[in-house]
Amino acid sequence: MSPRRAIAVIDDDALVRSGLARLIRSFGLEVGVFGSAASFLASGPETWGCVVTDIHMPEISGLDLLRRLRTSHPDLPVVVVTAFPDMRDQAMAAGARDFLEKPCAPDRIEATLRRMLDEA
After folding, report:
1. Cβ–Cβ under 8 Å, residues 64 and 37
2. pLDDT for the residue 4
3. Cβ contact 29:72 at 8 Å
4. What is the residue extent of each domain of the chain?
5. Cystine design at 6: which of 30, 33, 92, 98 (Cβ 3.0–4.6 Å)?
């Protein structure tokens, strides 16, 4: 993977994780997948160009991950993708660069990710 250009997808649901990874690859972007925030943190967040995370995950939630990344890697763009629209304000206040509600149109996902990589 190209350093700082690959997208990290973090979701505890294997079907969501693999589906989103296939979609991102179809855009011609590189992607890595993680079943938990802990496994992502162990991978070295500084190697990623953008993070896409769910909110509701065991052990470390997406919001907790976001807060940690704002402290340790403040310039790393994080996009929250969730089926819970009422979490938008909390995610944005915690430092998310964007918030996408599931289901989300593929063209919106692609535009968001390309913008995040351009800003990184």
Report:
1. yes
2. 63
3. no
4. 7-119
5. 30
Give the Å distances, CA to CA, from 86 to 45, 56, 57, 114, 119: 27, 13, 16, 25, 26
CB 49 within 8 A of CB 5: yes
CA–CA dist 38, 10 (Å, integer): 10
Question: What token pair was written down for 38?
Answer: 């802990």
Written as one letter, the residue type at 28 is G
Residue 1 has pLDDT above 50, yes or no: no
Q: What mean pLDDT do residues 102-112 have? A: 94
Count Cβ neighbours within 10 Å for each residue of 81-113 and write b for 16 or more, e otherwise. Answer: bbeeeebeeebeebbbbbbbeeeeeeeebbebb
CATH code given to domain 7-119: 3.40.50.2300
**pTM of the predicted protein model:** 0.93
- In Å, what is the CA distance from 36 to each residue of 1, 64, 113? 20, 12, 20
Q: At which residue do the structure tokens 């997208």 appear? A: 7
Backbone phi, then psi, for 7, in 5-degree steps? -95, 130
